[in-house]
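hey all, quick one before standup. I had two proteins in the batch that finished overnight and I want to keep them in one place so we stop losing track of which output belongs to which input. First protein below, input sequence then structure tokens straight from the run.
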Amino acid sequence: MKFSINRASFVKALNIVQRAISSKTTIPILTGLKIDVSPNHILLTGSNADISIQTTISGDNPDNDLTISDTGSIVLPARFFGKIVKKLPGNELSIEVGDNFQTNINSGNSDFTINGLDANGYPHLPEVNTDNTVDLPAEIFKEVIGQTVIAVSKQESRPILTGVHFTLNQNQLVAVATDSHRLSQRKVDLPKEDDGEYDVVIPGDSLKELSHMLDGEKEQIKMNLSENQVMFNFGVTRFYSRLLEGNYPDTSRLIPNSSVTKVQFSAAYLLAAVERASLLSHESRNNVIKLSIKPNDKVVTITGNSPDVGKVEEDLDPKKVEGEELEISFNPDYMKEALRAFGQIDVEVGFTSALRPFTIVPTDEQEEFIQLITPVRTF
């Protein structure tokens, strides 16, 4: 195996697949980077058994300046190899594999030799059926991930809740996550009729990693499913993730259909107020802030209290308030994460009672996005 390539192009591809490589894996060869060299392209693969990433460096792209002398495959220790390649002095990188998988890395006046491994020992990536494909704009899918993954559970006691539940039916994609204290649900209408019906749970950690990779991606992302794997295809990159096994709880019954008290704010305005109130609540053992609503007086007050430090009270300026008087306490961290997911738009917070979960939705009803937060009993 022997090739030369523009070093910057190789480093860019290397950075992508290294996201999937971990030094903590129980399968030693997975600490390595797999390089497959074909007559006209190079395929880089990284995996930690939970997620796998493949990206292609094409010889057809003149920016890559790729010259392939001999084809073949090798697995190189990712940590050392990555550091070496990124610190080499020249613009061109040459890699040649000799006897016993000894690999020579050359750039400028610098010459490294490191020990590689036989690529035949690298686990095969899962076969994923590409017949049924769900197409989504990458920007929209990144937004869906950002809005739902905040509510996945961090507790392994119920593994199914550590993922986001995706269902597709009659060309509507629904993504839901809950940790039993809060819930986030986003619906997206797909542009074309899709015959397939899907019901899968994708680990939250996998989706966070995928989201980072979609930064700046403007094209479509294709989602393909097999029995226990999902593959996302975008640009020259493929991202594989295992699926979580089990039945996700029916969350639709948790979302109230009506509310007795409604308040409208700019999401950014309410977020800033909650952040101020939480400055003191974080010093308290229970980390709770309180919202007092008096619709007849058009008064909404937010209160944070720590017996050891002090108290904060702020009168808010809602854009609209209606319904019954209410006092409700909640975890400010849940509220902050929920509000950040809305960005700069206006939201409506709807309450049914002081002890029932309340909802946060956009005032623009065109966008089907809802956050649900369970209040905290303070008496």
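OK second protein, same deal, sequence then tokens:
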Amino acid sequence: MESLRLLVLVRDLGSLGRAAEELGIAQPSASKRMSTLERQLGLVLLERTRRGSELTGSGRVVVGWAQRVLDELEGLRTGAEALRAERDAELRVAASMTLAEHFAPVWVGELRRLRPDVYMGLQVSNSEHVVELVTAGEVDLGFIESPSVPKGLSSREVAADRLVVVVSPQHPWARRRRSLRPAELAATPLVVREPGSGTRETVELALAAAGAGSLQPHVELGSSAAVRSAVIAGTGPAIISELAVATDLADGRLVRVLVDGVDFSRTLRAVWPGGHRLLGPAAELLALTTRDGSARNDP
């Protein structure tokens, strides 16, 4: 990871020497790290000139990926810190996979910045299990991606998401010019999330609303990351959160396939026991997730 940080600093500072100084290492060590990185990737990333070090065309592409990796690592560290505090937490939170991967680290980090005295435990599961934890009083606040709000719970919209159909570049659909028909999609064996996940429920309801029939699972997997990897490997098409595959679509590892007549948009929600007003850290966390910063009980 230090080599990636060094590469990003070269981009920002325009000099390998300045980047080395920023990291507190000698320039020969920095040069050796960059040479090792270039050898590992099989690419020339830097062009050494009298004015300093300039990124090559490949270097400009790789540095963008490196920045994303470093950002994800920071989110991972924040999330892991929350997980370590789970047993003795003052604030108990559960989140479904998509929310835990793409939103919770930011919210947790912001709460910890504002309230460093608060210890928060974060459990990650599918939406169905998150609802069970909230209903049983085992967590103070839950985040789900289910299409509907379970009875007995109050909720608040915290984000919007959209599911997309994706295939590997080698799949016949990747070269298709016309959009898929809903019935054609429903009749195709798909890589899907497990029953109980919000993604699975959203897909099933959307296909039913379009009159397309029932979902045909080919492989069932327990996380968006596993579904993404299976599609890249050529296992089959999948319907997955756009958030989970945005980078893959931009880089060409996956191809999006359009579908006519199916609404795959969804609302991501916070949920808590109905009839209870959130107080203290739970209310503060909810406020951080909403645009207007108010934590109110919605029906």
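Flagging for whoever picks this up: The CA atoms of residues 195 and 201 lie 8 Å apart. The two ends are 46 Å apart (CA to CA).
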